[in-house]
Amino acid sequence: xxxxxxxxxxxxxxxxxxxxxxxxxxxxxxxxxxxxxxxxxxxxxxxxxxxxxxxxxxxxxxxxxxxxxxxxxxxxxxxxxxxxxxxxxxxxxxxxxxxxxxxxxxxxxxxxxxxxxxxxxxxxxxxxxxxxxxxxxxxxxxxxxxxxxxxxxxxxxxxxxxxxxxxxxxxxxxxxxxxxxxxxxxxxxxxxxxxxxxxxxxxxxxxxxxxxxxxxxxxxxxxxxxxxxxxxxxxxxxxxxxxxxxxxxxxxxxxxxxxxxxxxxxxxxxxxxxxxxxxxxxxxxxxxxxxxxxxxxxxxxxxxxxxxxxxxxxxxxxxxxxxxxxxxxxxxxxx
Length: 335
Description:
By secondary structure, the protein is α/β, with parallel strands linked by helices. It has helices spanning about 10-25, 35-50, 55-65, 70-80, 120-125, 135-150, 165-170, 175-185, 200-205, 225-235, 240-245, 250-255, 275-295, 300-310, 325-335, and strands spanning about 80-85, 95-105, 105-115, 155-160, 190-200, 210-215, 220, 260-265, 315, 320-325. The radius of gyration is 22 Å and the shape is globular.
């Protein structure tokens, strides 16, 4: 497993304990059970300390960990069955988007997600999760299909951003992203969004307009990547750690500004340390939200979705007064 910089001390300690256990075989007991147990308690204390003091940038590295579960892993582990659907009916099939009909905890849904790949070949095949215009059209086609058959939508977000190449621009990348955002507000079926890794720029937002937005503890959600922000603001991509702090891209920052609704706790150190644990947590979140949203009438959902997004952010006046609703600020300022 790839070791992140902040995990090196932990890995060294784990290796030491393993070596001591091997030295203490049945024939040669060099270390007693109590001594080994004491060392393991110290290891657990070290883990708690390291993982409780993570910087925003270190948490970004967790969200990008090569072993972190991706969309395809969630589909395999939280869906009882899955029938993939392909193509946008206009240009082609974008492999960066996986979507189709599925069953989660006995509930029929349409699942859509961005897939990065987990080795060299699959990453090239999936274009590293960077979606082309046909991918966004494919996602919207599946959402409209879900609406037609009154099926809830589950959207899994994990992308470094929409593909920025010339071919994507020639096929209307910006327009397609804007259309997805607009049309997702109008869909009359429940939409549950889960940010499972990177949620970067319009590539994420084009599939993240939902009735409820859940976010994994160490995922990030931002208008731009830390490296991109550092390149623009400081002309130095190496200032990614400073950019990560400035962007306020972590889950606890975003829930404060009503950008996400729920933080889904990850196993200690990140989802890659216990994938089965995070699959259970995500399944629980989706199932509970499905039960709640199914009690609402379909014609109410677009209005409630609009109101939810109108409450995003806070406006601060010169006097320091914070007002959640931008419309309320406008009215008060005019008095």
